[in-house]
Design goal:
little secondary structure; about 130 residues; 3 strands
Length: about 130
């Protein structure tokens, strides 16, 4: 097989060359800019510090956290596990160790523990206590 050694290849008008559809490139490709308009498959490790617009189905492993949605809409999950969500959050069960802060709570409060009953407050307010 022959080899071709060149420093630079340009098309006939002086621009970059096009790689034909279905072409197989072996070896190392080094580029400062790449534009992939179709699908791209990576069979090894893809590393880049600021990868954005990832369409992931399945497990996500993130080095420094995950941000989703647009600014002010969506949420953030940090690498330390701290989560912040904008909008309505529905969960089947939530365990909290620490402070829960909210502008309002919904429900009748019948399952609350460690809270004085309203009857005791009513008695005190109206001269009974």
């Amino acid at each position: 097989m022959s080899q071709l050694y060149v420093d630079n290849i340009r098309n006939r008008t002086g621009g970059p060359i096009g790689i034909p559809t279905g072409a197989v490139v072996t070896g190392v490709i080094t580029a400062t800019t790449a534009n992939v308009t179709g699908n791209m498959t990576v069979g090894g490790v893809l590393t880049y510090e600021d990868v954005t617009n990832i369409d992931s189905v399945g497990v996500i492993t993130a080095r420094s956290g995950i941000e989703f949605g647009a600014s002010g809409v969506g949420g953030t999950i940090t690498a330390a596990g701290q989560a912040e969500f904008i909008g309505v959050v529905t969960a089947l069960g939530v365990n909290v160790s620490g402070v829960v802060t909210a502008t309002s709570f919904k429900g009748d409060g019948s399952a609350l523990t460690g809270v004085e009953s309203w009857n005791q407050f009513d008695t005190w307010l109206y001269g009974g206590g």
